[in-house]
Amino acid sequence: MKPRDRLRIAMQKSGRLTEPALDLLKRCGLTFRQSRDKLFCFGEGEPVDLLLVRDDDIPGLIAQGVCDLGIVGRNVLDEFRLAAGREAEPLTELRPLGFGRCRLSIAVPQESDYREPRQLAGLRIATSYPGLLGEWLRTQGVDAGVVTLAGSVEIAPRLGTADAICDLVQSGGTLVANQLREADVLLESEAVLAGPQALPADERGDMLELLLKRLDGVIQVRESRLLLLQASRGALDAITRLLPGGPQPTLLPVAGQPDQLMLQALCAGEVSWRQLEEIKRAGAREMFVLPVEKMLA
Ligand code: PRP
Ligand code: ZN
């Protein structure tokens, strides 16, 4: 097989991670030609292509060298590492991506008196994550039966094939609909960039390094807002104390008004209406909150 000179990223073909993952790549300057119902998308500007697959297949594709990177839930990556053992060794979590947040949790029937893990001893727990569940049970010192199911785990207790489940919880809607309640959290998950421990020593490695830098810039500013406002010198201290996080603000003179200044501050998160109103009460005028698109430190 001829070594590839283009970087290849595997991601979920259709599901909760698909849209935010594509959006993130777009913000990193990557655009793709192929329509999305195809498996393969050719990268237009940069030598980076996409492979659209089932999320559970992503870690294996990276471990086999079919893809260089993957955007996948931490739950899928960690489960693969536990199941694949040595084969998964070169695989690592390069970056948490901040979307697709969910929990891998134990859930029990609503009427259960569950308070602590040892009450699971001797019970049957249905899951699609036997590796992660098995490891958690071992660390808790609990001996329970693990029933591995590929999907529809939440109906197992009603069908009588399990006493509890271990599944992903995001909004909690699935649990409520199945008269279950979340009892214990095994893993806090989110989408991550998975890839090799060491960069390939060729053009792909260079491209990967560039991509990581862009990603860091995008992730860092994604929640950031640029706040602009005018105020008199006397009000500056009070206003500065109210600014939500971020580095020192920049002060600029206002033409023809020696007592007035324009303040510019990068805020670490959203700036809410309440915060704006408070800053205004401290003496600010002409306030603008702008999203930040790119940053290169
Ligand atoms: C996951 C999980 C639950 C549901 C939880 O399934 O298996 O069924 O999401 O989400 P909620 O707390 O917001 O209801 P998903 O929709 O990803 O499909 P899958 O199980 O077929 O992968
Ligand atoms: Zn899935």
Can you give keywords for this protein?
alpha/beta, binds zinc ion, 3 domains, 297 residues, Alpha-Beta Plaits, 9 helices, five-stranded mixed β-sheet
* Order of adjacent strands in the largest pleated sheet: 2-3-1-4-11-5
Largest sheet data: 6 strands, mixed
What is the number of helices?
A: 9
Helix fraction bin: 25-40%
Question: How would you characterize the overall build of this protein?
Answer:
The protein contains nine helices and 15 strands. With 297 residues, it is an alpha/beta fold. It has three domains: 7-99 and 191-221, 3-Layer(aba) Sandwich (D-Maltodextrin-Binding Protein, domain 2), CATH 3.40.190.10; 102-189, 3-Layer(aba) Sandwich (D-Maltodextrin-Binding Protein, domain 2); 223-291, 2-Layer Sandwich (Alpha-Beta Plaits). The chain has a six-stranded mixed sheet with strand order 2-3-1-4-11-5. Strands 8-7-9-6-10 form a five-stranded mixed sheet. A four-stranded antiparallel sheet has the order 13-14-12-15, with no helix packed on it. Strand 2 (40-41) and strand 3 form a beta hairpin. Helix 3 (74-84) crosses helix 4 (130-140). 33% of the residues are buried. 1-O-pyrophosphono-5-O-phosphono-alpha-D-ribofuranose (PRP) is lined by residues 16, 151, 154, 167-174.
